[in-house]
Specification:
This protein is about 25% helix and about 0% strand. The chain is mostly helical.
Length: about 45
């Protein structure tokens, strides 16, 4: 499966948790109404 990913590696639950922590932090106060899709690059059309 990883060989088919544009990034050639899998994502970890830690990476998802870091994204959630960022979005919940004050550093993300200007980010609104976004959909974050953990698709590993599959939506890039590669």
């Amino acid at each position: 499966m990883c060989s088919k990913s544009p990034f050639k590696r899998s994502r970890s639950s830690q990476q998802a948790a870091e994204a959630v922590a960022f979005l919940a932090s004050d550093a993300a106060d200007c980010i609104t109404g976004q959909n974050i899709t953990p698709a590993g690059g599959y939506g890039l059309g590669a």
